[in-house]
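User: Quick one: structure for sequence A, then sequence B.

Assistant: Sequence A:
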Amino acid sequence: MAITKEIKNRIKSVKGTQKITNAMYLIASTKLRKAKGELDLTRPYFNSLQGEIKRIFRISEEIENKYFYPVTGEHELPGSYGYLVITADKGLAGAYNQNVIKEALRLMKEHENPKLFVVGEYGRHYFNAHDIPIEKSFLYTAQNPTIQRAREISSILLDLFNRGKLAKIFVIYTDMQNAIQSKTCSTRLLPFHRAQFIVPDSQEKKIEKPFEFQPSIEKVLDNIVPSYVTGFIYSALIDSFCSEQNARMNAMDAASRNAQEILDELTIQYNHIRQSAITQEITEISSGARSMRKRRSVPVS
């Protein structure tokens, strides 16, 4: 009976764990829907900004601006490179955090004197534990990405870029491609390549009237680009958050299914042991009854 008691306790424990994983799955799915809705509300504004930058380059592709690679096409710029790494605040999300950190380490090895900027407790703990210096750690939680926080991050990175402290800035985050697959991305945030905004001739709309920019095209770009950078960082924060919740949903769903398999095996094992105990009791009772009948049938001398 001691074995059956142990199995019953194990079944109770697994059921408790399964309730937790089911609850975490539902919470992650709710957060995922909410984050997607917030991104959809803000995306049209930043798409419009991108459209305005493309409109500027339709007028002149030879514009010189500090936020773009030189017209000469020089890509190797001297100076430190900055890396904005977006991780989660906690685990239980499969390989989500490990993939981001692995990509960040790979990029940082390619250039000397990297400057690390981290969002998320998981990344902060990892880099601190491995004695990797962090230039700036954004201490607010990664669980609630907002446009205001994206603006704060972009202002710090843009200030360092404008002062020449950073020659290039990369963002390492996770892009949720669909409900099943997410991909770790490393994107150069600054400087932009002008090819990103030059529209091919086949897609270019005919400009009937020339545009005038006051005080100048360069000044207009200086004002538009920071907002566009903010939008890109906000999109990366939301994409990462959605990917985290999606990874957690998949991990919790797999954990719940594994728990159910364990419960099925334990139930079968418990039933077998219980059936064996009942069979043994019936056998003992039958044997005792036969023994009693034999004793009564023996004549007394």
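Sequence B:
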Amino acid sequence: TRMIESRKSRLITMLVLPFMSCSARLPVYLLLAAAFFPIPWQATLVLFSLYLIGIFIAVVSARLLRSAVFKGEDIPFVMELPPYRTPTPRPYRRPTVRSVAIHVWMRSKQYLQKMGTVILAASIIVWFMSYYPRQDKERAIKDQQVEALQQSALPEAIRQAQIDSLEHSFATYHQEQSIIGRIGHLSEPIIRPLGFDWKMGVSIVSGLMAKEVVVSTMGVIYTGDGDDGDEAIAQLSTRMKQEKRSDGSPSFSPLIAYSFMLFVLLYFPCIATLIAIGRESGHWKWGFFSALYSCGIAWLICFVVYQ
């Protein structure tokens, strides 16, 4: 946005850019689309619609911000383009090794800075909030039950199934009683009209730091394993389809999954984006405005879709 001369247009562009779906959101789409839209053309249509909705919301938001927040005449945006077509054809020139190395280094440096600062910090915070308090008493009881099962004379398959069930039950209980689980419970009255429960609320809260953390958080909550390998993802997908709420209704359905994907698409830009908006706009209030505005839009759109 630095090349846009008009401050109004520059701010509007900053505020609507987060609605464009980034690569960090893609693992969430792929996980839910594959699990709840198994027919290929349905999953393709779902993914395509998410990108189209992001573009549509960005355009509508730009018009709304132009008419409601940034009123008045504006400087037209003119950008000079190089002459792509020349009268005489020029010979093909390969890019130099130096220019390629500079571009690769700049992009790698940006990514490593994000991985080593924002995403690392977010992962540590989410881990701490999901690990404490430790529930040592309940963990000791679970370990005793597992040890008793391991020494029992039950068939191997039945014994392992019961051990897995105990581990999953304890992992769910531990997550529910953790700091982030309690935050999820506090958010449940707000997100219940969207079809979400406290577990989805925990994933949403973890995604405030970085969207890359959403899938691993869901893995920890639903399976007790935050791994993102193919086997772990398949196990997470199966567990999500089997998950039931306290009233016996399924936690996920195609409609709830689509509503959740919409929310992940539209809500709260990651911390790195908010920091960039604050720095480039010259005032942190626009970062806070972007966070509140995007969350409001996400809640409203998902409420309409689910209800």
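Residues 215 and 261 are 12 Å apart (CA to CA). The mean pLDDT is 85.

User: Thanks, that's what I needed.
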